[in-house]
Amino acid sequence: MVYLWLRAETKPMEHRAALTPSTCKTLLDRGFKITVERSPERIFDDEEYAKVGCHMVPIGEWRKAPRNAYIVGLKELPEGETDPLEHTHIFFAHCFKNQGGWTDILGRFDAGKGTILDLEFLNDDQGRRVAAFGYHAGFAGAAIGVDNWCHQKLNPGQPLPGYKPFPNEGQLISYIKERLGRAVALNGGELPEVMVMGALGRCGRGATDLARAVGIPEEKIISWDLNETKAGGPFPRILQAEIFVNCIYLNQPIPPFFTKEMLDGERKLSAIVDVSCDTTNPHNPIPVYSINTTFESPVVAVPSKNPLPLDVCSIDHLPTLLPRESSEAFSRDLLPTIINLEKRHESAVWNRAEALFHQKVQAMRDLAI
Ligand SMILES: NC(=O)c1ccc[n+]([C@@H]2O[C@H](COP(=O)([O-])OP(=O)(O)OC[C@H]3O[C@@H](n4cnc5c(N)ncnc54)[C@H](O)[C@@H]3O)[C@@H](O)[C@H]2O)c1
Asked: Hey, which bits of the chain come out as E strands?
């Protein structure tokens, strides 16, 4: 029997969950045992988990969980702790790419003989992620782009206020539609054009779906992917769209999509959302800003000689805007792989994840010598 223990997230503003009440129900029906830590932050009420048959416990109890329980979460473990970790944890550990503090966290697992099966590195035989949050990142990012354009019309000169997560997708769409209606009226009845770069990917599909959902007509949704950019940038066409949503997966150096100087000239572009967020990458194809923005302060202004405003949104955890739907989609995609925990050592996905963990622990040990 597989035993899953859903821990409560402790990162501020994190309302998402790796396992939702509906995926828990499917797993319980298959004979899994599931314990869920109560959480006031999670978008799903504790009662929703209790109702489907999960065993409920207080926050942080995972430290005392039976050794055979898989501790499931999304974000990092609480900061500042140093004790050895003995369980197998399934989460986004953010320590396999030498991120800040990577040796500390791997050292805790090494000392406790625990294991990380990192959600970011659960890949199928084709190397594709089995579950990712991309779709809702694009969806939320495009929503902020359209809303920012509306804000520029409705409240000229004022910075875009912060966002709180929306209870569901329907409420986000209604909110944007209402704002768009009023902004378009001030724009002579003209809807803005939304250009999505990397439109064929997960984030790109989310961004185009949002544009459609709020009523942008097909002819005003400009979808570009590798085929349209193969000649190499910069691309003056981007400056002709009011809203630009960058959703590419940058895996090699490419010329910039546009330059700072180009922004001084003629343009309609006034709202950029960099979903890809390659902010500090030397090959960031949008080299006109240098910080990651936040839900509290969603955009940064780009100075230009053209008086039309220009803002960039570069939030790197966009799916948090829609915790319910993004969790449901992620958890649904993850479900078949979770079910394969029943025969984990026959599963290539889990075996690769475990091998990667051991490789990273070895790299950490080598560093210490
Ligand atoms: N900001 C956030 O909250 C957030 C959340 C999730 C993912 N992301 C990031 O978004 C990016 C995209 O993720 P994804 O899951 O959608 O990736 P993906 O691989 O599904 O899609 C990327 C798309 O970009 C296209 N592409 C790559 N290079 C291009 C180029 N030069 N010109 C045009 N198109 C190009 C690809 O063909 C593909 O269709 C990643 O960098 C990911 O880390 C950000």
From this structure: 3-6, 33-37, 55-57, 70-72, 88-91, 115-118, 194-197, 221-224, 243-246, 271-274, 300-301, 311-313
- Active-site residue (options: 94, 97, 343, 360): 94
Is 276's C-beta closer than 6 angstroms to any atom of ligand 1? yes
Indicate whether 12 and 150 sit together in one domain.
Answer: no
Report the number of distinct structural domains present in the chain.
2
> Does pLDDT of 85 surpass 80?
yes
pLDDT at 12 over 90: no
Taking a C-beta distance cutoff of 8 angstroms, is the pair 211, 262 a contact? no
pLDDT above 90: residue 73: yes
3-state DSSP assignment of residue 155: coil
Under 8 Å between Cβ of 53 and 29: no
- Full residue range of the structural domain in which residue 24 is found: 3-121+323-368
75 among known catalytic residues: yes
The CATH number covering residue 33 comes to 3.40.50.720
